[in-house]
């Protein structure tokens, strides 16, 4: 979660950090008061999939905070050393234990308020056997009229699901980019 002025101590030497504008810069950075190390903070990528089985989509009920007990598409923070697509596939396996064939990038949603960009790929489920990981209470398929719209954990997930069911009706899955909030 993006948290302005969240760095209190230097990651290099442990001394207190202060937010100040470095020379030749135009915004405040956490700067070490002893060794001078500047700690840059940048947006994080959240990557996931829309795993589909015919007209149904796989959702996971969260076993972790935030939004414990609410439903989400399998997604999580991208790791170093992987591509966006790699990360989306990894999260799908970790959270749902689902086997999928990855398809095209489907949504890119800027969540500037929290310093995140969310990417979802379409994915085709290869079977309906799921093995939810420790971060998931339950994984199951939903038709559009079964989706618990009031119990969806994140706006980016709700937006992506709405696009998916709309596109499925027309039979044309385009790429969707939007800014949230
Ligand atoms: Zn330092």
Task: Give a short synopsis of this structure.
The protein has helices at 84-96, 155-170, and strands at 17-20, 29-32, 38-39, 44-53, 56-62, 71-72, 75-77, 100-111, 116-125, 136-142, 176-179.
What does this structure look like?
The chain folds into two domains: 1-41, Ubiquitin Ligase Nedd4, Chain: W, CATH 2.20.70.10; 44-179, Nucleoside Triphosphate Pyrophosphohydrolase (Alpha-Beta Complex). 16% of the residues lie in helices and 36% in strands. It has two helices and eleven strands; from the N terminus they run E-E-E-E-E-E-E-H-E-E-E-H-E. Strands 4, 5, 6, 7, 8, 9, 10 and 11 form an eight-stranded mixed sheet that branches. Strands 1-2-3 form a three-stranded antiparallel sheet, with no helix packed on it. The longest helix has 16 residues, at 155-170. The structure holds zinc ion. Residues 10, 12-13, 15, 32, 34-35, 37 line the site of zinc ion.
């Amino acid at each position: 979660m993006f948290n302005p002025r969240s760095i209190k101590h230097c990651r290099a030497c442990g001394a207190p950090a202060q937010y100040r504008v470095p020379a030749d810069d135009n915004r405040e950075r956490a700067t070490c008061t002893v060794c001078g190390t500047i700690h840059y903070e940048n947006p994080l990528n959240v990557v996931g999939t829309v795993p589909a089985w015919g007209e149904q989509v796989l959702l996971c009920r969260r076993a972790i905070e935030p939004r414990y007990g609410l439903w989400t598409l399998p997604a999580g923070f991208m790791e170093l050393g992987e591509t966006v697509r790699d990360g989306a596939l990894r999260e799908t396996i970790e959270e749902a234990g689902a086997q999928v064939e990855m398809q095209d990038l489907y949504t890119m949603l800027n969540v500037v308020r929290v310093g995140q960009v969310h990417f979802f790929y379409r994915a085709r489920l290869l079977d309906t056997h799921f093995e939810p990981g420790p971060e998931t209470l339950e994984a199951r398929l939903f038709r559009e009229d079964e989706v618990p719209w009031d119990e969806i954990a994140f706006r980016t997930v709700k937006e992506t699901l709405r696009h998916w069911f709309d596109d499925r009706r027309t039979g044309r899955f385009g790429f969707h980019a939007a800014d949230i909030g």
